[in-house]
Every structure is written in C-alpha cells, then in structure tokens.
C-alpha cells in the first residue's frame, strides 16, 4: 500500500512560502528549491540502515556507525526535477543520477516522453523520482512506469507540492511507491495547474517565461 508523507519541518515550510511567492525571482527561487531539496533528502533518508564499524580516533578505538551499503539513484523528471538534484547530492554525494525527459502537453495534459538515460544497475538501487510538481500525476506515473519497465524494483517519489488528484493517480497506478511531499495543495485549475501552487516550476527555475 502506497503511503503519503508530508514533510512539515518548519524550515521546509518557511522556505516553501518564499518559493510560492510570485515576487521571488529566478535566482532566489533556484536557491530555495535547492535548499528545500537538501532538507527533504535529509528527511527521506531517515530510515537508512546502519552498520557498525570500528575506527581509530586520535584518542582510542571507537565502535561507530556508517550507512550500510545502500545504493541510491536519483531520477529527476526533466526539466523542473533538475532544480532539486544538486541539493540532494549535497548530502547523498555517491548517488547516481538517471534522467527522464517528459513534458506535459498543454492541451491534453498528457505526458510526452523525449529522453531517457538511466544507470545500468537501476534494478539494484533505491530510486528517488524527483519533480517539484505533482499535478494530474500523469508525468510522475509515466516516469515510474518507464523505470519499472527497465527493471526498477524500489521506487520513491519526492515532490515539493502535490495536488490531491496527482497523489490519487500515482497511488492508483503504483501501489508500491511511497510519496514524499512538502505540501498537499487544494486542487487543480482548468489548465491543470496546482492551486495555490507556485506556478510553472520549470519556467520559474530556468527563467523561460
Ligand atoms: O502531474 P502532471 O499533470 O503531469 O504535471 C506535472 C509536470 O508538469 C511540469 O513539467 P512540464 O511539463 O511543465 O515540463 P518542464 O519541467 O520542462 O517545464 C512538472 O515539472 C511535472 O513534470
Ligand atoms: O502547477 C503546476 C502544474 C504542472 N506543472 C507546473 O510546473 N506547475
Ligand atoms: Mg513546465
């Protein structure tokens, strides 16, 4: 059964407020998305398994812990997902990164695939699909489907803002995928934009509007 986790850490909520604000310009928007991605990565890795190792401090031997060999893969959905990659790599620097290129057709709101490049060992990795926006859920669901067709077994979805419609869609299509978000908003408008949302994440990140 797919679970939904909402990261309500005060720093995440604070930064998300300024990400949403239409008066926040490209530079600051990019920086804030990067920072929130780092904080969300910290939360999403909370239950990583640890193993005990022995090391030598300048004073004595110490039995201490390291993350036990988990292989992680990040899969941003282009373009907007790219805005979260560096923030996550800051604290999971050994993660490999695959890319799924999808854009949402503005008329049909259906995802159109245009690029796919994945690490060869995705079947052995814990994958985190990344996209700031989960609107109708079409893009995330299609990305997850593509990964499964390439052998992925263990997938999480991480988004900044989700609409209830998108959460329902992904949970219906992919019962095995847990969803991690910073906020669940009210609804979609007639153009499939999240309300209140933050506007077009790709355009705001890359200054293309
Ligand atoms: O849940 P959905 O209804 O599929 O909508 C969400 C998708 O729309 C946006 O991408 P967009 O198509 O604008 O592409 P971009 O990242 O290149 O701007 C967003 O980053 C998601 O990928
Ligand atoms: O609100 C939305 C919906 C889809 N894509 C976006 O970038 N924003
Ligand atoms: Mg866009």
From TrEMBL:
* Family matches, as PANTHER family: ADENINE PHOSPHORIBOSYLTRANSFERASE, URACIL PHOSPHORIBOSYLTRANSFERASE, CHLOROPLASTIC
Per the UniProt entry, what are the Gene Ontology biological process annotations, in alphabetical order? UMP salvage; uracil salvage
Q: Tell me the organism's taxonomic lineage.
A: Bacteria, Bacillati, Bacillota, Bacilli, Bacillales
**The protein's name in its UniProt record:** Uracil phosphoribosyltransferase
Q: Which gene encodes it?
A: upp
The entry's uracil-binding residues are 194, 199-201
Activity regulation, in the record's words, is: Allosterically activated by GTP.
- Cofactor stoichiometry and binding? Binds 1 Mg(2+) ion per subunit. The magnesium is bound as Mg-PRPP.
What family is this protein classified in? Answer: Belongs to the UPRTase family.
- Write out the pathway annotation from the protein's UniProt entry: Pyrimidine metabolism; UMP biosynthesis via salvage pathway; UMP from uracil: step 1/1
